[in-house]
Amino acid sequence: MNTADNTPHGKRGELRMHFERDNEGRSILRELYRRAPIIVQQALYFDENMPLLPCVYILSAGGPVVEGDNYSHHISLGNGACAHISTGAATKVAQMRGGWAQLKQHISLGEEAYLEWLPEATIPCAGAQYKSVCEVEVAPSATLFYAECYTSGRRFFEERYRYRRLDLSMRITRPNGESVFAERQLIEPSVEIESVGVMAGMDIFSSVVIIAPPHITLSLYSSIEPRLEKSIALGVHLLPHDEGIVCRIVGRATTDVKSLTRTLCSMLRQRVQGVALPEEFVWR
Fold first, then answer.
1. Which of 179, 182, 258, 275 to pair with 51, CA 20 to 30 A apart?
2. What is the per-residue pLDDT across 250-261, written as a single tens digit (0 to 9) for each?
3. pTM for this predicted structure
4. Is residue 275 predicted with pLDDT exceeding 50?
5. CB 166 within 8 A of CB 185
6. % of the chain with per-residue pLDDT over 90
7. How far from the centroid of its chain's Cα atoms is residue 214's Cα?
8. pLDDT value, residue 197
9. Nearest one of 239, 43, 31, 207 to 119, comparing CA atoms
């Protein structure tokens, strides 16, 4: 693969991963390419509930995301393959003078593939501008759990909602090009973000998108109860033609939002794989 360009080393991180199912039924990381500062650990098989599931953690050797960084992820799962992908730690987006940092993701799931995308939170520092573009192609019999979580900033440095802008977009299609879901969230804290109807004093928000066959979607949707409490809230929306579910979670503590997100993932896994998501490691 020829990756030569004029981009300074470390400013354009690139990741390519392809998972396949081998003859013994185990999913393996068949292809891996990475460009600094992205690092990927060896696929691990520590999930006792799903011993054939590879768990992969994406790391960074370059510290926080800084102005001008441009990262890309290309992740594909072949027919029948499965994977659990996360990050080793929270992603910090550093202060910027006026430019942007950007992440582009392309995810492809073959027939009967199963992917859990559960990264740690993204923390935008004061003055940060961050753009995320995610394009996903999902076969009709495949299942996707996609979650992303953002904090209000470094609260202990009194940087709540002092970032400049988050521009988050996602588009999901079928292999034939049929659109399943598309949205764009443009978040500018200067626009009364802590008012009622927006964040209402909460510090963390998580977006969860679930795409699954209709019978799985309807079973899961009927079991998710919306919540509205002082410390956490959950909203649920069923996509047209029962092709998926979109959930929004806001809360005051990252641990609470993360726990509820993992509960949703476990509920989906139980319906698709017949087993629950294991408890998170205590050090995470």
1. 258
2. 999 999 999 999
3. 0.93
4. yes
5. yes
6. 82
7. 22
8. 58
9. 207
**Tokens of residue 158, six digits:** 């009194």
Of 60, 52, 59, nearest in space to 19 by CA: 52
Q: Are the C-beta atoms of 253 and 259 separated by less than 8 Å?
A: no
CA–CA dist 70, 158 (Å, integer): 27
Tell me the C-alpha distance between 70 and 13, whole Å.
7
> CA 237 to CA 66: how far, in whole Å?
34
Residue 133 gets the label, from left (phi > 0), alpha (psi -120 to 50) or beta, of beta
pLDDT at 1: 39
Mean pLDDT of 210-223: 98
Q: How far apart are the first and last CA of the chain?
A: 35
Q: Are 125 and 278 contacting, i.e. CB atoms less than 8 angstroms apart?
A: no
| H or E stretch covering 204 | strand 204-211
What is the per-residue burial (b if ≥16 Cβ within 10 Å, else e) of 38-66? bebeebeeebeebeebbbbbbebeeebbb
Q: Residue 162: how many CB atoms within 10 A of its CB? A: 18
**How buried is 25 (Cβ within 10 angstroms: 0-12 exposed, 13-18 middle, 19+ buried)?**
exposed
Place of tokens 């073959």: 110
Contact 47, 53 (CB under 8 A): yes
Residue 226: burial class (beta carbons within 10 Å; 0-12, 13-18, 19+): exposed
Burial of 136 (0-12, 13-18, 19+ CB in 10 A): buried
Tokens of 36: 């600094």
